[in-house]
TrEMBL record:
GO terms for molecular function: carbohydrate binding. It is found in: Cell envelope. Belongs to the bacterial solute-binding protein 2 family. This is Sugar ABC transporter substrate-binding protein. It comes from Cellulomonas composti.
Length: 353
């Protein structure tokens, strides 16, 4: 992107109205779609009548994300790379994945010095990466913030988020539907790391949704998003609760351990809802051979969406399904419930635990 082009982009970006696609949780859990509804957003026509997906000016994108120490995080980077490869006009430069905040800052400094057109960044710590992201924006580089928000909205041209509160709402609404108003139902929750805002948001959404049908969580234990932590937490939960009607487990990676504890205890009087959307969990749901009956998606496609959006912004294009001529400032992805009835739709984007 030339300096004049960047200046024009900065002027336009300053006047862009923020827009979030937020889908309210409800008992239906997902929007209705017809069979011929396109699942991939076709880009709005670019100048000259060509599709936005057709090759345009070359776009160099720097990408940085935390270490892939979790199935979901590994899928984030893999999906971003796969999406970039779909475009002949995109050159993706991937920094080494790291949980070292200072190293990630230096990676972004390197992208700035290299003069990339855009940076797609899933920060290990959003607040800590805010200043360097602002620096990139001030130098005319398009910054797309993924999953963990910066502390200043001016640090990114576009922010792509999952919906942690919505996950809880979707899980709670599904459980309400399945229990059919059973007033004395015993519902358990196996949370993630309690100190994290994302866990707090998921739990709040869950409690709020259950309240709409007169239910509440009777037993709750925190885990740590690992299989080992999930197994230990579930074992303690099952000992404390001799009877349960439903369990919501926040995370499918820790759910590997949760299922191991359930099998070891020989318990099957309840059904379980997972969280995030791993391939293993979806395959189990499809087989319908365990207590695991559903999971709530937390999209591992966020960075892939970020690659597409960065390309559109740099090339001065928009999104086809909007009248607005600019790419939105914020996009929040939906948290649908996956069951055996719709699992085939979501399996192609599932991640490996």
């Amino acid at each position: 992107m030339s300096a004049p082009t960047r200046r024009r982009w900065l002027t336009l970006a300053a006047g862009t109205v923020a827009l979030a696609f937020v889908v309210a949780g409800c008992t239906s859990n997902e929007p209705e779609e017809s069979e011929d509804t396109a699942t991939n957003t076709a880009a709005a026509p670019a100048p000259g009548g060509t599709s936005n997906d057709e090759p345009g000016d070359k776009v160099v994108i720097g990408f940085s994300a935390p270490a892939a120490d979790h199935g979901w995080m590994a899928a984030i980077t893999k999906a971003a790379q796969a999406t970039a490869e779909e475009y002949s006009d995109v050159e993706l430069r991937v920094a080494e994945a790291t949980n070292d905040t200072n190293l990630q800052i230096s990676q972004i400094e390197g992208f700035i010095n290299d003069g990339v057109d855009a940076i797609v960044l899933l920060p290990f710590d959003g607040a800590a990466l805010t200043d360097i992201a602002i620096e990139a924006m001030q130098k005319g580089i398009v910054v797309v913030n993924v999953d963990r928000e910066f502390s200043d909205p001016n640090a990114a041209r576009v922010t792509v988020l999952g919906d942690n509160y919505g996950m809880g709402v979707s899980a709670g609404s599904y459980i309400c539907d399945q229990l059919g108003g059973k007033a004395d139902a015993k519902i358990a929750e196996i949370a993630g790391i309690d100190s994290l805002p994302l866990t707090q948001d998921r739990s709040q959404g869950f409690a709020d949704a259950l309240a709409t049908c007169g239910l509440e969580v009777s037993n709750r234990v925190p885990a740590d998003f690992t299989a080992q932590g999930g197994e230990a937490a579930a074992a303690n939960l099952l000992q404390a609760a001799p009877h349960l009607d439903a369990i919501w487990n926040h995370d499918d990676d820790q759910g590997v351990g949760v299922m191991a504890a359930i099998e070891a205890a020989g318990r099957d009087e309840f059904f379980m809802v997972g969280g995030a959307g791993s391939k293993q969990v979806m395959e189990s749901i499809k087989a319908d051979d365990s207590v695991l009956k559903a999971t709530v998606i937390y999209p591992s496609t966020q960075a892939a969406d970020g690659i597409k959006l960065a390309r559109l912004v740099v090339q001065g294009k928009s999104m086809s399904d909007l009248v607005e001529v600019e790419v939105p400032r914020k996009i929040q992805l939906f948290a649908p419930v996956v069951t055996k009835d719709n699992v085939d739709r979501y399996l192609p984007t599932a991640f490996e635990s």
